[in-house]
Q: What sequence folds into this?
C-alpha cells in the first residue's frame, strides 16, 4: 500500500505591491494617529484647564480691582476733570503772549524831546508807534535808537512812514517794525 | 454559504488593513468630536485671556495712579482751576479778577467791555477758541497807570491765580492826566470750559500726569488765590427771594 501526500492548505494568493505597501504603512499610520490623537487630547484638556484656571484667576483679580477703583470713583472724577481742565488751560497759557517786555523796550525809546504818542502791538510781534519829535535832530536820535534795537535783534524790518512837519515845527511820524518773538514770551 | 466563506476569506486575508483603516476612521471621527472643539476652545480662551490681560494691565495702571494720588491736593487744585477756567461764563469772577489786579498793581481800570453774547440761549456757548476746548468771551479792557504799575497789572492777569485771559493786541498811549501816565487798551478773550458730564467706565484708561501738567498744577496749587475771588468763600450770598418781603 503506497502512501500519498495531499496538500490541504489553500495556496496563499500573492498580494499586489500596493497591498504589500499598505500592509506595512496602514497599521503604523493607525498607531501614529491613535498616539497623536490621545496625546493631543490630553494636552488640549490640560492646556484648556490651565487656561481656564488662569482666566478665572484674572477675572477674580479684575473684579477685585474694579471694586477698588469704583470705591475711588470720586477721586478719579476729580483727577480726570482736573487733568482735562489743566490740558485746556495749558494750551491757553502756552498760546498767551506777554506784552510787558515789549512795553519796557518801547519805554526805553522815550526821550524828553521825543513823544511816543501811541504804540500798538499784536501777538505776531507787529508794532506800530505814532511819534512826535520836537526837532529833526531828536527824530534822528530816535531812529538811531531804533536801529540800535535792530542790531540787538530786538526789532526787525523797521519802516518809517508819514513824516509830517507840523505848524509848531514838530515832526510827526509813524514807525512800524517787527518785534522779536522772544519779547512776547 | 460558499459566498460567505469567500467573504470571510477575504476578510481574513485583509484583516490588518481593514482594522487599521477602521482605527484611522474612528480617530478622525473622534478628533472631529473631541479634539477640534477643544482646539477651538483653546483659541477662544487665548483671545479672551489676551483681552483680560489688557484689561488687567489697564486696571492695574489705573489703580496704581489712583492709589498714589493726593486727594486733598486735587480737591484744592480743582477748586482753584474752577476760578481760573470756570465751567460757565461767570462774569463776576472776570470783573473781580480785573478789580483785584487793578488794586494790587495800582492801575485804574477805566473800562471793561465784555461781549455778553446770547446769554439766554445755548448758541452763545458755541464759540470756541481755535485748537482748544475752551469757549471764549471777547473782552476789551482800558486801564490807566504808570509804566511799572501797567507792567504789574499785565503780570498779574497773566498769573496763575485768577481768571485766564489772553490778548490779541495792546495799545498804549500817553494819558492826558499826566506825563508818565499811560492809557492802555487790551483786546482779547476770557475763557470758560464746560467739563464732560461723565467720566469713563471703570476700565476706561485714566490719563497719566505729564511733567508739564504736573508743573502747571503745582504752580496753581502754590499760587495764592486772589482775595476778591475768595471774598465769599467761593459762594455768593443770596439775598431775599422776594424784594418786597
A:
Amino acid at each position: 500500500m503506497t502512501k500519498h501526500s495531499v496538500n490541504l492548505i489553500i495556496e496563499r494568493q500573492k498580494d499586489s505591491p500596493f497591498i504589500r505597501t499598505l500592509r506595512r504603512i496602514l497599521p503604523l499610520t493607525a498607531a501614529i494617529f491613535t498616539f497623536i490623537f490621545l496625546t493631543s487630547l490630553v494636552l488640549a484638556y490640560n492646556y484648556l484647564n490651565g487656561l481656564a484656571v488662569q482666566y478665572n484667576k484674572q477675572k477674580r483679580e479684575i473684579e477685585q480691582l474694579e471694586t477698588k477703583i469704583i470705591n475711588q470713583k470720586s477721586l478719579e472724577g476729580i483727577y480726570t476733570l482736573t487733568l482735562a481742565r489743566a490740558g485746556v488751560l495749558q494750551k491757553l497759557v502756552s498760546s498767551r503772549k506777554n506784552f510787558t517786555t515789549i512795553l519796557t523796550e518801547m519805554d526805553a525809546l522815550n526821550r524828553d524831546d521825543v513823544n511816543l504818542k501811541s504804540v500798538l502791538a499784536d501777538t505776531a510781534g507787529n508794532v506800530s508807534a505814532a511819534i512826535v519829535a520836537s526837532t529833526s535832530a531828536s527824530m534822528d536820535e530816535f531812529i538811531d535808537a531804533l536801529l540800535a534795537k535792530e542790531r540787538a535783534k530786538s526789532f526787525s524790518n523797521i519802516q518809517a512812514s508819514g513824516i509830517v512837519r507840523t505848524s509848531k515845527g514838530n515832526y510827526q511820524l509813524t514807525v512800524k517794525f517787527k518785534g522779536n518773538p522772544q519779547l512776547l514770551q | 454559504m460558499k459566498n460567505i466563506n469567500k467573504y470571510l476569506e477575504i476578510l481574513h486575508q485583509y484583516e490588518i488593513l481593514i482594522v487599521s483603516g477602521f482605527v484611522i476612521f474612528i480617530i478622525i471621527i473622534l478628533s472631529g468630536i473631541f479634539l477640534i472643539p477643544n482646539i477651538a476652545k483653546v483659541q477662544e480662551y487665548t483671545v479672551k485671556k489676551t483681552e483680560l490681560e489688557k484689561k488687567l494691565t489697564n486696571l492695574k495702571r489705573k489703580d496704581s495712579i489712583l492709589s498714589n494720588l493726593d486727594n486733598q491736593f486735587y480737591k484744592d487744585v480743582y477748586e482753584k482751576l474752577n476760578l481760573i477756567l470756570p465751567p460757565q461764563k461767570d462774569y463776576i469772577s472776570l470783573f473781580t479778577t480785573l478789580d483785584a489786579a487793578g488794586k494790587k498793581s495800582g492801575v485804574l481800570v477805566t473800562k471793561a467791555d465784555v461781549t455778553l453774547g446770547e446769554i439766554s440761549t445755548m448758541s452763545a456757548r458755541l464759540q470756541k477758541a481755535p485748537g482748544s476746548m475752551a469757549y471764549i468771551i471777547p473782552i476789551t479792557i482800558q486801564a490807566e497807570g504808570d509804566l511799572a504799575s501797567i507792567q504789574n497789572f499785565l503780570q498779574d492777569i497773566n498769573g496763575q491765580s485768577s481768571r485766564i485771559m489772553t490778548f490779541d493786541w495792546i495799545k498804549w498811549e500817553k494819558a492826558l492826566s499826566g506825563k508818565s501816565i499811560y492809557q492802555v487798551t487790551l483786546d482779547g478773550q476770557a475763557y470758560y470750559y464746560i467739563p464732560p458730564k461723565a467720566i469713563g467706565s471703570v476700565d476706561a484708561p485714566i490719563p497719566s500726569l505729564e511733567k508739564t501738567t504736573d508743573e502747571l498744577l503745582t504752580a496753581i496749587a502754590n499760587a495764592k488765590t486772589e482775595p476778591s475771588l475768595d471774598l465769599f468763600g467761593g459762594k455768593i450770598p443770596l439775598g431775599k427771594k422776594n424784594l418786597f418781603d
